[in-house]
Amino acid sequence: MHRLWRLPATFVAFASFGIGGVLLWLVVFPALNLLVREPGKRVPRARAAIHWLFKAFITWMRLLSLISYEIHGAERLQRQGLLILANHPTLIDVVFLISLVRNADCVVKSTLAEHPCTRGPVRATGYICNNSGSELLQACIDSVAAAGNLIIFPEGTRTRPGQPLKMQRGAAQIATRGLLDITPVTFNVEPLGLFKGQPWWQVADRPLHFTVTVGEDIAVAPFLQASQGESALAARRLTDYLIDYFTKSKGSYASAGN
After folding, report:
1. Highest-confidence range of 104-118, 189-203, 217-231, by mean pLDDT?
2. Phi, psi (5° rounding) for residue 233?
């Protein structure tokens, strides 16, 4: 009976998310553009709107008995100018993070800037699209330097159950070139759900329980020193360290599936 309830509840949750995205695009952000003319003021307000909307969505999923959660170290996310790197086991990881982080910036797929459910938030908030080529790294560094809190999933996509954790070097290159320490966030989910390749209608037999852990900052300077200031080598070593860090934290489906 519980599983039968969560099937329509899951549909309701994601349908409401899509409707909310369209309303933001058609109503909220056009109104914001009219009322706030200065981009420097408009972008933070648009990000605040997303922050509170995502917080409401997480609460909505909990009220529908789809998820439960516990968060450790959330106070570390209350600072400004953070480079936040997280593992990516489920579909709603970014929603969780933005609900916890004020003035959040993200690197998003360029297709999201054209999708009707997401293009409103992406354009209004000034999120960084991943099609900016050589300018992408500098745009990320500039975002943190401007007191934004940049959220990146170094895996680039959701982890598949049972597969070893793999990470792209882009996040580490941002950290080493910008001399930016890393604030790591680990997601653990039990039972497995909302993972890559899973249809939305294959719901678990009980609510997904998220354990979100914000770790101590990872200093970048030691990696540069060990690499004699060579940023490319430092980025490779930092990427290897991050893979080991998140795997040992059991924050990926790779470890959960073994």
Report:
1. 217-231
2. -65, -40
